[in-house]
């Protein structure tokens, strides 16, 4: 009888299943209510398998949180500056909303502001990178006279709060991405920060 050793690829596939299971559970039932047996069950592995890849559920939280923040930073960086600040913010919002329609957990993890006490410094730095990238767009709008005067951080948070509200409605399947309330709320997000 021959036994085969699990390949590195199998290990990575298992790791990815664990990350996905944690992401889905953390963004639906919450970090505190999520147990390692629940993560293992969702991933289709034994509970002990988690500890071959991660030190525990807090380590998993940091991994999925960083992944979401890096994705969000890439979304901001990939938008074209040629559209101007209003167009660029609309592109960013649309990408977040489109992702919420097909992967609500990813968008929720990006936009969440809970469980901060469980985040390590690398996760906090990833969040700062996302927020700084978005603030850079808003600050460019302020410098160009299209965003209200005042702290770019404030206007970024205002805009992002409204976009998060939209993404949550879309992720919960209350609004389709192209529904009139989505467009109206996106207009409201811009109006909230636009120079008068």
Can you give a write-up of this model?
- The chain is mostly helical and 196 residues long.
- Helix content is 71%, strand content 0%.
- Helix 5 packs across helix 6 (104-111), helix 7 (121-143) packs across helix 8 (152-171) and helix 8 runs antiparallel to helix 9 (180-193).
- It is elongated and about 60 Å long.
- The model has no long low-confidence stretch (mean pLDDT 93).
Question: What are the main properties of this structure?
Answer:
71% helix, mainly alpha, 9 helices, Tetracycline Repressor, domain 2, single chain, 0% strand
Topology:
Elements: H1 8-26, H2 36-43, H3 47-53, H4 57-78, H5 84-102, H6 104-111, H7 121-143, H8 152-171, H9 180-193
Order of helices and strands: HHHHHHHHH
Summarize the biggest pleated sheet.
none
CATH architecture: Orthogonal Bundle
CATH class: Mainly Alpha
**Rg, Cα atoms, Å:** 19 Å
What is the CATH topology?
Tetracycline Repressor, domain 2
Q: Looking at this structure, what is the CATH superfamily?
A: Tetracycline Repressor, domain 2
Question: Which secondary-structure class do the elements indicate?
Answer: mainly alpha
Q: How many domain units?
A: 1
Low-confidence stretches: none
Instruction: Indicate the percent of residues in helices.
Output: over 70%
Number of strands: 0
How big a fraction of the residues is strand? under 5%
What does the average pLDDT come to?
93
User: Count the helices. How many?
Assistant: 9
Label the overall shape.
elongated
N- and C-termini, Cα separation: 77 Å
């Amino acid at each position: 009888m021959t036994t085969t050793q699990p390949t590195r690829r199998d290990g990575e596939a298992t790791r990815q299943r664990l990350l996905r299971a944690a992401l889905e559970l953390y963004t639906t039932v919450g970090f505190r209510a999520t147990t390692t047996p629940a993560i293992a069950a969702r991933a289709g592995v034994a509970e002990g398998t988690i500890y071959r890849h991660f030190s525990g559920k807090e380590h998993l939280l940091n991994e999925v949180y960083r992944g979401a923040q890096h994705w969000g930073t890439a979304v901001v960086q990939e938008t074209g500056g040629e559209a101007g600040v209003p167009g660029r913010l609309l592109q960013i919002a649309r990408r977040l909303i489109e992702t919420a329609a097909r992967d609500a957990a990813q968008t929720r993890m990006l936009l969440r502001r809970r469980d901060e006490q469980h985040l390590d410094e690398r996760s906090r730095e990833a969040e700062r990178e996302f927020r700084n990238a978005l603030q850079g767009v808003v600050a460019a709008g302020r410098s160009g006279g299209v965003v209200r005067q005042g702290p770019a951080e404030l206007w970024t948070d205002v805009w992002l709060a409204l976009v998060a509200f939209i993404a949550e409605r879309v992720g919960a399947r209350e609004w389709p991405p192209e529904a009139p309330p989505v467009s109206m709320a996106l207009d409201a997000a811009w109006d909230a920060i636009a120079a008068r």
